Amino acid sequence: MKALLVRLGVTAAVAGALVAALWQFDLDFSIPWRYRDLYVEGLGRTVAATGLAFGVGMVLGVAVALLRLSRRLAIRHLGDLYVELIRGTPFVVQVWIAYFGVATLLRVDNKFFVGTLALGVFAAAYMGEIFRAGIESVERGQVEAARSLGLSHVQTLRHVIFPQAFKRMIPPLTGELIALTKESSLLYLIGLVEMMAVAKQVGADTYRNFEAFLVVAAMYLTLTVPLSLFARRLERRLKRSERTGVHL
Amino acid sequence: MRGPILVCLALLVGCKGKDERSTLDIVLERGELVVGTEPEFPPFESKNEKGEFVGFDMDMARDLAKDLGVKLRIEEMAWDSLPTALETGKIDVVISGMTATEERAKSRAFSEPYFKTRLCLLVNVSSGIEKPADANGKRLVVKLGTTGDIQSRKLFPDAKVVKLDAEGACALEVATGRADAFLYDRHSIIRHQKSHPDTTRAILQPLSEEPYAMAARLGDTKFVERLNRFLHDFRADGRYARIYEKHLGEPPDDK
Question: ipTM value of the model?
Fold first, then answer.
């Protein structure tokens, strides 16, 4: 209870300081309010693109992690190449090549599909590393102990490695989802009008960029803060189950 | 025996998977004209509260589609993507307040100009800039990839030029005093000056002439000729003057 009060107090102090600073600028939020329908539409696109990309990233990410954990060098190297290629180049370049290059050759014109897929491919490089690190973080000795107790390879994975690895993956996965939410704004390059693009357009139409951007910043926060809170709660619950030995 | 195989190979190499017909034929067959624009440039193109595309260019696009007897679809995207979208056939024509320059004409075909504006300066009140020449040696901002960006080197060789991504950001740099002057199109400078009346001044002596034109795929003479015929009719029957006055608040000044 006391912890909650401390948190609320600090939040209020920071928010107050921010509002006081912004007060100097003579802002008029009735201007972006008139464009609320566009903002809501943009919000929907941001959520849809990010959510789907995260899903694609999960599936591809697991595949990448498995590639990189393989015993065969050739396969392991394939996973390494994927991660280096995707993580080492800007997403702007990737989405450009995906839409104007690959999609043109394949005659695919749906930019939501192409953009979301490209974002998922991008996310998979980071998420694959999170999965791999999570799995490798479980000590070798535990695997050996499990195997000598007669658990099969799959049973070891399922009952020993995965429950522990999963807990450790939650914070970085949440971070990745939050980063992806903001990264999705780059999809405007191929004409996907997500909420950052809306803010730019509203700023241009009204010549009031400050208000237009502050509104979208607040919208990003309303997406990301609950995510962080949810992740923190999930993590805490899993830690408790570890101590009490209760399986979820 | 080798002959036919070589011919087939040559055909395969020659085929780039792109429609090589004139855009005009493609548009008429499809029954739809796809216009590409970045709606962040009032009064030429922007989006209003209802999400409708408004402005001079957008009204002209509607008339163009009507003249061609097809439906209109407006594809919005970031400025940097427009040329590539045109090249790859994602859009048929760019109508986005685009100035026809020699450099740009190497990669796309421009229609005749439909609007002439001039590059002017938005200056900070304490910058000490009274006339355009004073801006040389000062801190200048331009929007990346615009004609202001392209011309800044030539017009102000000694200025320290900073390139920003958004028009609004450029105006704010001047309003807050981090930059002395913003080099951009006349009508936008006037509007930005009005939204920062205490901190900025507009210097409206023209620095160079900027002819806006529609952009089509390079070498598509047939389509460009059709665009030019539209522009001719559009001016002759008074639609041009009406749209001009509606969006710029003054009658057309070019003869």
Answer: 0.85
Task: For B175-188, write each residue's pLDDT tens digit.
Answer: 999 999 999 999 99
Largest Cα span, chain A: 71
Name beta bridge partners: B110: B215
Q: Residue B141 corresponds to which tokens in the numbers above?
A: 């901002």
Chain A residue numbers touching B51 (CB-CB < 8 A): 37-38, 41
- Do the beta carbons of residue B74 and residue B53 sit within 8 Å? yes
Token readout for B200 is 């900025």
Report pLDDT digits (tens) over B197-222: 999 999 999 998 889 999 999 999 99
Positive or negative, the CA dihedral A225, A231, A232, A237 is positive
pTM: 0.86
User: Contacts of residue A203 in chain B, CB cutoff 8 Å?
Assistant: 40, 166, 168
Query: Can you give the three-state secondary structure of A165-211, one letter per residue?
Result: HHHHHHHHHHHHHHHHHHHHHHHHHHCCCCHHHHHHHHHHHHCCHHH
Q: Suggest the residue from A105, A109, A198, A200 to mutate for an interface test with chain B (most B CBs closer than 10 A).
A: A200
CA dihedral A220, A224, A226, A229 (to 10 degrees): -150
Q: What is the CA radius of gyration of chain A?
A: 22
**Residue contact B84–A100, C-beta within 8 A:** yes
pLDDT (tens digit, 9 = 90+) per residue, A65-116? 999 988 899 999 999 999 999 999 999 999 999 999 999 999 998 999 999 9
Q: How far is B77 from chain A (nearest CA, A)?
A: 4
Say which DSSP state B99 is in.
B
pLDDT category of residue A23 using cuts at 50, 70 and 90 = confident
**Phi, psi for B110 (deg, rounded to 5):** -95, 145
Cβ contacts of A38 on chain B, cutoff 8 Å? 47, 49, 51
CA dihedral B238, B243, B244, B249 (to 10 degrees): 120
What CA–CA distance (Å, rounded) separates B157 from B136? 7
Residue among B88, B168, B191 whose CB faces A100 most closely: B88
